[in-house]
């Protein structure tokens, strides 16, 4: 069993990137294994950990299909729809409230 190389915050070599950095470049890990670990030390808690992937093995992000785009629109619409009054609130309804603000205030 091999262990991953661990780099300190901001000291990772070129050619490695996090998922977020890959996404900003229009790439995705594409099924490759994690190449290294990035650790940011914190006081009184364990370090923040990010996984690094090789940029040369990354694949381009898949194009959004019309079916995927409509499914995403339906999911976002469902997150904005109040379960109490069934209206589109215009914002994502917080799980802590469970309903839109007017419905929560009236209860």
Strand order of the largest sheet: 1-4-5-2
Largest sheet: 4 strands, mixed
- The low-pLDDT segments are none
Cα distance, first to last residue?
57 Å
| Average pLDDT | 93
Helices and strands: which structural class?
alpha+beta
- Helical segment tally? 3
Taken as a percent bin, the fraction of beta residues is 15-25%
- What is the string of helix and strand elements? EEHEEEEHH
The count of DSSP E runs of length 2 or more, i.e. the number of strands, is 6
Overall helicity: 25-40%
The 3D shape can be described as flat
Radius of gyration from CA coordinates: 21 Å
Break the fold down into its secondary structure elements and pairings.
Blueprint: E1 6-8, E2 16-17, H1 19-24, E3 27-28, E4 36-42, E5 45-54, E6 59-60, H2 66-80, H3 101-106
Verbal overview:
By secondary structure, this protein is an alpha+beta fold. It is built from 3 helices and 6 strands; from the N terminus they run E-E-H-E-E-E-E-H-H. It has a 4-stranded mixed sheet with strand order 1-4-5-2. The chain has a two-stranded antiparallel ribbon with strand order 3-6. It is flat, with a radius of gyration of 21 Å.
């Amino acid at each position: 069993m091999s262990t991953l190389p661990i780099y300190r915050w901001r000291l990772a070599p070129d050619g490695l990137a996090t998922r977020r950095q890959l996404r900003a470049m229009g790439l995705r890990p594409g099924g490759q294994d994690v190449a290294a670990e990035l650790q940011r030390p914190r006081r009184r808690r364990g370090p923040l950990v990010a996984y690094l992937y090789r940029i040369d093995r990354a694949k381009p992000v898949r194009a959004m299909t019309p079916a995927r785009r409509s499914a995403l629109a339906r999911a976002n619409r469902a997150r904005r729809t109040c379960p109490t009054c069934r209206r589109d609130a215009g914002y994502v309804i917080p799980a802590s409230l469970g309903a839109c603000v007017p419905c929560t205030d009236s209860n």
